[in-house]
Amino acid sequence: MTSELTNQFKEPIFDVAQIAHVEVLSPTPKETVAFYTDMLGMEIVDQVAHKTYLRAYEDNYKYSLIVTEGEEAGLGHVAWRTTSPQALERRVKALEESGQGIGWANEEYGHGPAYQFTTPDGHKMEVFWEVEYYDCHEDKHSKLMSRSQKRPKHGVPVRRLDHINLMSSNPAADTNFMAETLGFKVREQIVDNDHVIGTWNSVSNLVHEIAFMQEPTGAKGKLHHVCYWYGIPQNLYDVADLLKDHDYFIEIPPNKHGVSQAFCMYVYEPSGNRVELFGDAGYLIFDPDWKTLTWEMEDVPGNGDTWIGAVFPDSFWNYGTPAPATVPVKVAAE
Amino acid sequence: MTSELTNQFKEPIFDVAQIAHVEVLSPTPKETVAFYTDMLGMEIVDQVAHKTYLRAYEDNYKYSLIVTEGEEAGLGHVAWRTTSPQALERRVKALEESGQGIGWANEEYGHGPAYQFTTPDGHKMEVFWEVEYYDCHEDKHSKLMSRSQKRPKHGVPVRRLDHINLMSSNPAADTNFMAETLGFKVREQIVDNDHVIGTWNSVSNLVHEIAFMQEPTGAKGKLHHVCYWYGIPQNLYDVADLLKDHDYFIEIPPNKHGVSQAFCMYVYEPSGNRVELFGDAGYLIFDPDWKTLTWEMEDVPGNGDTWIGAVFPDSFWNYGTPAPATVPVKVAAE
Amino acid sequence: MTSELTNQFKEPIFDVAQIAHVEVLSPTPKETVAFYTDMLGMEIVDQVAHKTYLRAYEDNYKYSLIVTEGEEAGLGHVAWRTTSPQALERRVKALEESGQGIGWANEEYGHGPAYQFTTPDGHKMEVFWEVEYYDCHEDKHSKLMSRSQKRPKHGVPVRRLDHINLMSSNPAADTNFMAETLGFKVREQIVDNDHVIGTWNSVSNLVHEIAFMQEPTGAKGKLHHVCYWYGIPQNLYDVADLLKDHDYFIEIPPNKHGVSQAFCMYVYEPSGNRVELFGDAGYLIFDPDWKTLTWEMEDVPGNGDTWIGAVFPDSFWNYGTPAPATVPVKVAAE
Amino acid sequence: MTSELTNQFKEPIFDVAQIAHVEVLSPTPKETVAFYTDMLGMEIVDQVAHKTYLRAYEDNYKYSLIVTEGEEAGLGHVAWRTTSPQALERRVKALEESGQGIGWANEEYGHGPAYQFTTPDGHKMEVFWEVEYYDCHEDKHSKLMSRSQKRPKHGVPVRRLDHINLMSSNPAADTNFMAETLGFKVREQIVDNDHVIGTWNSVSNLVHEIAFMQEPTGAKGKLHHVCYWYGIPQNLYDVADLLKDHDYFIEIPPNKHGVSQAFCMYVYEPSGNRVELFGDAGYLIFDPDWKTLTWEMEDVPGNGDTWIGAVFPDSFWNYGTPAPATVPVKVAAE
Question: In this protein, which residues make up the domain named VOC (chains A, B, C, D) (predicted)?
Fold first, then answer.
């Protein structure tokens, strides 16, 4: 009875489970780490050579962020966890066949064997299965079983890593690569006269674990932002108030995104890397046959960017890291 | 290198995508429907014989709730959508083998072929692949592409169906049945001296699309509650305020659940069926190797039930529908 | 012991208690009233000739808003209630002496004898003591004793009138007039090279019941906005979402004001009159010896206007009603 | 024209402006102070002998709380600031005439001459005019002019002192005393068969700066609670989450009071003193001719106490400090 459909419908790939961690580069690692600890309430798990490993209080693995000292701000790498060891084998095979594979990593801090690769635009990534969980000291145990440790007493603490947004000289190429090799689905996209300006892609019920946005000058491999999650809308105003009083730069105040419906805000950490904070879950996608939503760029301002009044400043579309020497950091507020 | 693990790890089943709709029975269908429309801002899609089809404004299928006139309050059935037509074939095969299968449904209102079955406790369910989407009239289109229609102007409108909670004479048996035939994973459970009191199970990143709780008298097939989702914590207080002023019974005021971490509240609609409302996403599970969290019943009051002060009233553990003639409906407030 | 201070300190005037109601003019009264009822959940109390009387559900007098049909949008009048009949006598005497008095009003709908006057800029006002309370029908009584009626089931209902903001060709003159004749205290002000651009004035613990802002072209008697109060921050996002989906113009999305610290947003009702909505109480002033806070205009953008990122659009500083024929209504969103 | 009314209406007293500070006694001052600093984000201003002076970040005087080491938990004293030096003279005269006056205080830390007195039930109080403002170090200045210092980086910081609630063997007597000598107005009251169980009294637009509640055993001079203000509802959940994870006792979770409509919660600090936290402004009273709202005790549970579901635990009505040796501290959660 359903035999006809069976012939037509291509079953999804369920091999990648989640974003596991992100590495960012910072020429001012001390100040960058202080931003994440003092303002966002994250914890330093370890410091090895020029790398600081950090986690949010509901991240359940050993860490979700690496701040690595570097000459310029920008992306180090993004790590994905598969849904099984077999899934890892299948994805490594696909990555090898794509020609974008690098090989198995030498370093395995906090996880098992990791296969490295780059997107067509040159963003470095890795995929692994085995992972080390956070080992919470008895004094810090929460009675809340799903919480990895007690809620921190400092800053306005974020709960977990949410997603990454990368600038690309060719968003369509990167998007297709992620879909074909890792099974990402394109949930929403912005097109301008048939040119793909941005895509939001996920392997889960989230609208995205990874987005790609057009880098306007054609530069490659840039970072647009890393996003951490609160899940509580008011917390964005609380942390924004704290950030403002402590002289951090807020690029875009709390508002609801049209794309993803998430309650969001944007701030730059001291090295210049943009950080997004999420105040709710936006909408979640359960429909297994989701058709990509396509926004025309002309409909985006005041609808697709911030749903409620105001529009994104130019910096949102133009600024990524590494950035030119003269950074227009305070576009929005001056 | 990962070959050893491969031999050990059983890959998950990804065949069921989501809860698609729920049918509830009501001896007072007019009042029950008025509760859902006037208070929760839902829309009547169609009325056929003794059935009223309703949807929330971000539900993307034709309907998510059927209110059917019946002699007693309680559950009609629960419908699941698979991730593909092939997945439907596989699940039907597993259900047939389980001995719990009924057969293909005669009625296909709003969806394609549906295979019916019951849980060991007798709750009626169905599973299908093809589904009819909501056809929004042009006047009601939202500029927000992921929203199925404009936000309603009445009540405090819920956004989408979230989950179902069923009382069972044997929660462990129902839980195992859902895991084995449909691939549900047990995210959290409550045990009392090794006896399973409750389980929270999902096929998605949610902590649960279905929960089973011990029915204390051994009665079978009862409904504990249906849950709709706001995603915004304050909305629970807004709707609670509205419900209180319009004389509906609020069993449990807004609070954070320990289990699932969701911001929740409970109310009874006029027929006596319990309805839960969710104010956020709780925590989401991305770890593909999640180990079931086990609460001892003695740790639940003030931790697993409501995280912040107060504990659940007895009615929460004892009351389901259909209920005995003398219902202790106002346990909490009197 | 305190005798020296006694000689120095001028005791405050406590004769005006509150803003009692506001009359606005609208060339599209039907649409203006629909905005207040469908979106803000207000109730029509009465309609007499070309006037519609409205109230919010926690306003305790008969009405707080009059929408009067007029050729142009703008202010009708503002009404103040005194703290006693004796206080009314004293204020009438002061108003008569100021030369701005008009005389006792012919019309006393919903209140007792009202003495009329204008500000130096020509805004019409009145002051009275006796007032008619809202007579709530038994069916609509709330169990919440301080609530004048049940929470409405439509729109995102505002709770009460909060304040008025008037554009003036000479804010300093109007401010001094209100201080001298009615006892208003200047809580905050903006100056630009010693010229007063705006003042926020109150007779209560609020930062203002009335503000005056510089009209840039020198036009007189304009209305900047009327403000209604929710007291709950999230409600601003809820009503903004509703307004956006129903095609109303949101000039400034929810944000925290620097001046007053109130959580605010701005929208235009269909006739072009600006409406502000307040999501909390901002800060309250209890210090009886409050010293006016003075902002330099150069420090206002990004601090005194919206505290968290972004700045006010030009329309906020330039647009009032009545407005020139070609109104730049959609400055912010286009 | 208004001459008749003039003869009838008694003009209000406007001589007391606000609650200025509260002194609490604690047998565990170190732990009590740690609660206020680590959890509520307050700052230690000074420590002199057995007294610690603390303030919230939007308190504008030098301090709002004194924690004094004592053998038992309970109230030290409450301080009120007048609206002028003349008002102080008038109130001292009235207090002297009442027979409850003690005399001018020997100690004037942080303020000028203070006249001491007790309520009929024996609660110690003082009233003064001159006050020392908080002297904010340049490094801690906020750009927000109405904020006394930057928002703190630790705990979930409260903004200012709100009110005090005292248990009394005779609430009516204490209420009348405050009205007659200091001009307090009774905003709401609870009566049980004509006996006054509780009163909420204010000199400002707040529903209360001071409440009196019946002490059930007839003990005198007890403290029910001190209340600090957030003004943001979600902050109650944030601080409750923090308190729960750090093992403090939450007596009543966040909920809306019927009396005062305030969003509230109750916790005990380590010495056993109850602390309330306010998440919004409730409703504000602007009507100068406010008639006391009277609740019958039988209507209070589920309406006057917590508006939305649930009722107060017995401890709320019975427990104050100093408390009997065996304190039923964990009534609610066990």
Answer: 18-130, 160-280
